[in-house]
């Protein structure tokens, strides 16, 4: 956790994705946090499929 600013990572998904690719074991918790956020957003989307979600689109790109 030295040098990482955990408050900024979840809001900057491309940066987090890059960090995960460079050092996967160091960012397991951050990935799981985003994965859980993705699952929650998917459930919301299933309830309102006609409502576009920029956040869900960003999370899908992060997971890809």
From TrEMBL:
Belongs to the SDA1 family. GO terms for biological process: protein transport; ribosomal large subunit biogenesis; ribosomal large subunit export from nucleus. It is found in: Nucleus, Nucleolus. One of its GO terms (cellular component) is nucleolus. InterPro entries: Sda1. It comes from Mus musculus (Mouse). Keywords: Nucleus, Protein transport, Ribosome biogenesis, Transport. Signal peptide: none annotated. Its main location: nucleus. PANTHER family: HSDA/SDA1-RELATED (PTHR12730), PROTEIN SDA1 HOMOLOG (PTHR12730:SF0). The gene is Sdad1. The keyword Cytoplasm does not apply. This is Protein SDA1. Required for 60S pre-ribosomal subunits export to the cytoplasm.
């Amino acid at each position: 956790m030295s040098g990482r600013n955990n408050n900024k990572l979840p809001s900057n998904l491309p940066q987090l994705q890059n960090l995960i690719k460079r050092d996967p074991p160091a960012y397991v918790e951050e990935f799981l946090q985003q994965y859980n956020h993705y699952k929650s957003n998917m459930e919301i989307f299933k309830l309102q499929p006609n409502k576009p979600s920029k956040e869900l689109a960003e999370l899908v790109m992060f997971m890809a």
